[in-house]
Batch of 2 targets.
Target 1
Amino acid sequence: MNTLLQQNSVICLKSAIAYPDSGVQRQTLLEDANCRYILLSMAAGAKVAEHAASRNVTVQGIEGQGLLTLKGKALLLEPGVLIFMPASALHSISADTNLTVLLTLSEKVDHNP
């Protein structure tokens, strides 16, 4: 897979942001056997419809503002916010302004040993 970031490299996330004229743009920064790191940039007004991921996901606000609806609860996305979404949790995202988040998809963790 062609990724923006190679292992043991450094990147300034803000310099990697590229907003589409409309909709959503995804850039895979790095992918290994356990995790995938994706920079998700959304034009103001864009939406990602409700869906579920097969892996655990963290969503970290980098730039802009929007809402992440997780299991029916609206959560503010803005710089510095970190949200954990367990695998299979229904969620959607909407961008109030141009919005960029860092998604980290990891292996599903069984919290019930």
Note: The chain is about 5% helix and 50% strand.
Target 2
Amino acid sequence: MLDSNVVASPASRLAQAGAVAYVIWALLHFKASWSVYRFGQSMPEGMAQGRVLQDAWNLLWFSIIALVAAVGMNWRNDVRGWWINLVVVSVTDLGFIFYVLMPGHVPMWAGVAGPLFWVLGLVLSSLALRRAADAA
């Protein structure tokens, strides 16, 4: 049972805020995965359909990994969660930025939410780790 008299440290509050940002990122990408899957199902059978369905699969698993790391590690300010989400979320969103957002395949206002929550999660979790190290 949690003691209601214990005040969370600034580092833990930052870590939790970063975890929430990563959870929102994961939820957005669950939705994106479903949308890509539905798009793939509407395509004629063949290599292009297979690749689109593979993209949906990848988005699903990147979302699961980010969510598990956020809830299980980033929330507790665990550096392993920082590294996992740094790699998984960064690689996922950089590909989206370079190949979908920048060429204009989706409007900027509609596509910026994922990268926004990526940067927010990264900045908050980085600040949390830094504050915890400074306090130690």
Note: DSSP finds five helices and no strands in the chain.
